[in-house]
Design goal:
This protein has 180 residues and is α+β, with helices and mostly antiparallel strands. The chain has three helices and nine strands, in the order αβββββββαββα. The chain is elongated, with a radius of gyration of 22 Å. The structure holds calcium ion (CA) (2 copies).
Length: 180
């Protein structure tokens, strides 16, 4: 049972390493209603899911003010930092100054599609009411996913099965040796 536990722990460790790579881009907001475009190199995602976290700070004083977020020109989300969206965590710092963060899950199929050409494009479009009167204003995007370049490819399910069977077999062999 001990060996089986070790095999299970190994499988869990390998599964959690499925989010081995992070691409982060950030820039200060310097104009009202600014748009942000970033291109980043991105290796293949090996059929693993991903997630996109968007955070920032700025003058989101009206509930109608938002930012639209796209990956490879595909719309991901409209984020209203100041309208009570449960997906968005917002902190009010006083005097029209808000910071926020929101995370969106991305399917394996979508990750495969956007990394197929070895590059990911981030596009963030602030609505016109998001003014740039603070030096603290910024936008940040963080893509978490598995690209296989950081620590080798993600093991296939058949590899997990072989690992588990190998550990079980070893346990059976040791028990037999003890009895003999
Ligand atoms: Ca792409
Ligand atoms: Ca505003």
């Amino acid at each position: 049972m001990k060996l089986f536990g070790m095999a299970a722990a190994l499988i869990v460790a390998m599964s959690t390493s499925a989010f081995a790579d992070t691409i982060t881009r950030q820039a200060p907001q310097t104009s009202t209603g600014q748009n942000f475009t970033w291109f980043a190199p991105a290796g293949p995602s090996f059929g693993a899911p991903g997630s996109l976290t968007v955070s920032g700070r700025g003058d989101y004083n009206f509930h109608t003010e938002f930012l639209d977020v796209y990956l490879d020109d595909v719309f991901i989300a409209r984020i209203n930092p100041n309208n009570g969206d449960p997906k968005v965590t917002t902190t009010f710092h006083g005097a029209d100054d808000y910071s926020f963060t929101a995370t969106y899950g991305l399917t394996p199929g979508f990750m495969n599609a956007i990394t197929a050409n070895g590059q990911v494009k981030f596009f963030v479009d602030l609505s016109s009411g998001v003014n740039a009167f603070r030096s603290s204003a910024f936008v940040r995007v963080t893509l978490n996913y598995r690209n296989g370049q950081g620590g080798g490819p993600v093991p296939e399910p058949s590899t997990f099965a072989l690992l588990g069977m190998g550990a079980l077999g070893l346990g059976w062999y040791r028990r037999r040796r003890k009895l003999a």
